[in-house]
Amino acid sequence: MKKVRNIWENLTIKNKIRVFTISAFVAITAALLFDVWIVELFVIEFSQIMDDNSTSGEIVTAINDEIEAFDSFIRDTGDVDEVLWEKSKQTTYNAIYAVSLNYAHLGDNRFAQLQSLRSAYEVYCSYRNQVITDHNSESMYVSKLYDVYSMQKYLSEYAQRFVDSTMLEGNENYRQLLPVVFRVPFIIAGLSILLFILVVNVSKMLNRSVTQPVLKLAHASQRIAGNDFFIDDVEVDNKDELGDMVAAFNKMKFATGEYIKAMEEKREALDQLHVQEMENLEIEKQLETMNLELLKSQINPHFLFNTLNVIAGTANLEGAKTTEQMTEALSSLFRYNLKTQAKEALLSQELKIARDYMYLQKMRFGARVEFEIKCEVDENLFIVPTFTFQPLLENAVIHGISPKVEGGKVTIWIRSQSDRLLMDVSDTGAGMEAETLEKIRRQLQVGEDTIIDADIVGIGLGNISRRIRAMYDGGSLEIDSKENEGTTIKISIPLHGVDNQ
């Protein structure tokens, strides 16, 4: 193998391509020759067996037809006239002499049987013709007629023996071909593997001596294009045109690298100065950004709360009770959302925020929105995750109640069951299609390490589901919905009271 590799490396690129082309041609030629052999095996051999069976069967059929025609003609039944009788005789003659008297093809037994059949047929024809002549002249002898009948019987038996021998030899040939047929897939597989190995080996050598050196040159050229002139020389084992080109490339790379190195040393001082100036500009930019953020941070949430309290006080002085209540509800929402840092809160606090939020929605939508809280537990004794109800209420109003002209009702139902706290947020809004519901359910069932698609589930619902599963062992969030009937979010967490903190 090493000797073959050395010979290959000394070949020119043109000769290497020629060798690859010849190997591909050899593979294709071998495949074509194998196809020709398969055609000869399956088409010619099997066709010959079928033709032999067919022609021998036609002899028996023709002789039997002639016997019936002869009998009808002699008896003057009127079923066979002169034309049909002549046609019957010609058919028998054609059938007997249609089989070539070829010893190499027929073999000893069938050759002797066919030769005997033809000899007997010739004798039979002379007797038959004499009987027909006597019959036409009305001087027929019964003994001659029975001799013809006997000859017809012998002819029929000879023909049947020839058919039996033909079918027997055909079956024997078929049994001999059958193992070859079974071996054909293995032969095809073996030949395919050999041809594949041949082409693959030639392709590997061509790849190693042509493609890989070119790829090495291309990779080195890309690095040089990126101003990396001080790379290792490209090393190849080629002794052809590519080897000469690689040697010239290495010399050119070295000379260009030395020239670039001299130029880079001259520009190094200027580059360092430029870098220092850019760093100074970046520091100044960061300082300006920090000053702006410091100024913004001075406006803290207390300013917003105080402003809302002033608006509420002014509304009280002016007697605008509704405005005062709306401002206080909005202020409570802002204060809870911005100041609450804990992961859990009293159920009463969450329900207060839910009432404030729905109060503002009722002020917006009027009688189109109804809200009810059915709490079957002491809301001051149980702890729930913070920001649980408000996002669900927002989804219920925006996606459920708002699209319906007649509006609808939002209900929070809280109850305990065994050692679990069950919380349902339901609406009688637009609901959703079954396909959309199934997509949301699949998203809610993903693992904690998988990002929930906010375009399908929504930020609020996905965040609540993830927090519940992370905070509580066995915590769950489920969704049910029917189009034009409404949606229900079911939350189940372990009972967690104030005493458990």
Account of the 3D structure:
The protein has about 500 residues and is of the alpha+beta class. The chain folds into two domains: about 200 residues; about 160 residues, Heat Shock Protein 90 (2-Layer Sandwich), CATH 3.30.565.10. It contains 13 helices and seven strands. It has a five-stranded mixed β-sheet with strand order 2-4-5-7-6. A two-stranded antiparallel ribbon has the order 1-3. α9 runs parallel beside α10. The protein is elongated, with a radius of gyration of 52 Å.
Global shape: elongated
What is the mean predicted local confidence, pLDDT?
A: 76
The assigned structural class equals alpha+beta
Strand order of the biggest β-sheet: 2-4-5-7-6
Question: Helices and strands, in N-to-C order?
Answer: HHHHHHHHEHEEHEEHHHEE
- Number of discrete helical segments: 13
Largest sheet: 5 strands, mixed
Beta-strand residue fraction: 5-15%
Rg from C-alpha positions? 52 Å
Percent helix range:
over 70%
Low-confidence residue ranges: 290-299
Domain module tally: 2
* Number of DSSP-assigned strands: 7
Q: How many angstroms separate the termini?
A: 79 Å
